[in-house]
Write a structure and sequence with these properties.
By secondary structure, this protein is an alpha/beta fold. The protein is 34% helix and 18% strand. It folds into 2 domains: 259 residues, Acetylglutamate kinase-like (Carbamate kinase, 3-Layer(aba) Sandwich), CATH 3.40.1160; 93 residues, Archaeosine Trna-guanine Transglycosylase, Chain: A, domain 4. The longest helix has 24 residues. Pfam families: AA_kinase, PUA. It is found in: Cytoplasm. Belongs to the glutamate 5-kinase family.
Length: 361
Amino acid sequence: MSRLVVKVGSSSLTTPDGHIDPDRIGTVVDAVARARSAGDEVVLVSSGAIAAGLGPLGLRTRPRDLATQQAAASVGQGALVEFYGRRFAQHGLRVGQVLLTLDDVTRRSHYRNAHQTFAKLLELGVVPIVNENDTVATSEIRFGDNDRLAALVSHLVHADELVLLSDVDALYTGHPDLPASRRIEIVGGDEDLAEVDVSRVGSAVGTGGMVTKVEAARIATAAGIPVVLTSAALAGEALRHESVGTRFVPTGKRRPTRLLWLAHASETKGRLTLDDGAVRAITERKASLLAAGVAAVDGTFTAGDPVDLVRLDGTVVARGLVNFDARELPTMVGRSSHELVELLGPEYEREVVHRDDLVVL
Ligand SMILES: Nc1ncnc2c1ncn2[C@@H]1O[C@H](COP(=O)(O)OP(=O)(O)O)[C@@H](O)[C@H]1O
Ligand SMILES: N[C@@H](CCC(=O)OP(=O)(O)O)C(=O)O
């Protein structure tokens, strides 16, 4: 028995005019149901909320402004889950909706909570249907794309494999429409991606194109999870573990989910400049960052936000979840823990970034 996370993109679930495509969703549902009856557990990360909301709202193209995207997602997500519910019920399976925001995988209390919810849903035999919580996510807190969300979810649920289903059967050396592009069967590490061109955009309804799929595969494989990338039409074969599409082999070992996110977080909220001693302490001795080693503070962040830790010359050496708000730090920098307690009180004795909340890049 394996635990699989299956991610399916907007372009494989919806019609170009912004409605649910029953046949294509049906192919995915049937494949998931068969995997379940073969004894596998499946978490389905489904995009398509915005795309499925376009038709019902009379919108012709994907809106650019956040408010309309959120409104479309609100309408489309309901329609999608209703459709999944009915279709899985034909196989005697029940679905549960899980909407996540970035905080759910970065804040310790939240991700523990999310982990427990998934564990219980799977124990109860439910197929969790996951998406980003688009209707409340603002531009700062959006995962940005469901490929990365799926990579983080596969880590969160300790998946044995991540299956990325798109409208293309594999990763190619360049855009599949170009005659010179060749199919890639296996990716053993970053060196195999050096010559691959993923720059050309994909469908009009999808967001990430191949860039985010490759990035998701890198995140998952770096955490020890193999990835298969193929088309939704080949979902059956992929979930029967037949050799289809492109296989990305694991390159690293499991690490805490929020650190995985942190290492790949696209947006940090600020920057702490470290003196040379502090750089050595965090990189060589794996120590926490103390206020004494901070030389400068930039950005607007609150406690718990991700920040870059940079050398005096500005190069980024690490990322960490900071324990103080940006406005608290200027009076703290350069001071010893003893001085901080005397001057500001005992709650300021804490590390600026604890070593458990820090990834050296
Ligand atoms: N090197 C490449 N290999 C395969 N597909 C590529 C490549 N470069 C760009 N693409 C495009 O990426 C598309 C998939 O991305 P996208 O439309 O965002 O999918 P989804 O909606 O499934 O997330 C493919 O249909 C293809 O047009
Ligand atoms: N959360 C968004 C999906 C964003 C997204 O990543 O889309 P896609 O590139 O089709 O996987 C939605 O449901 O519309």
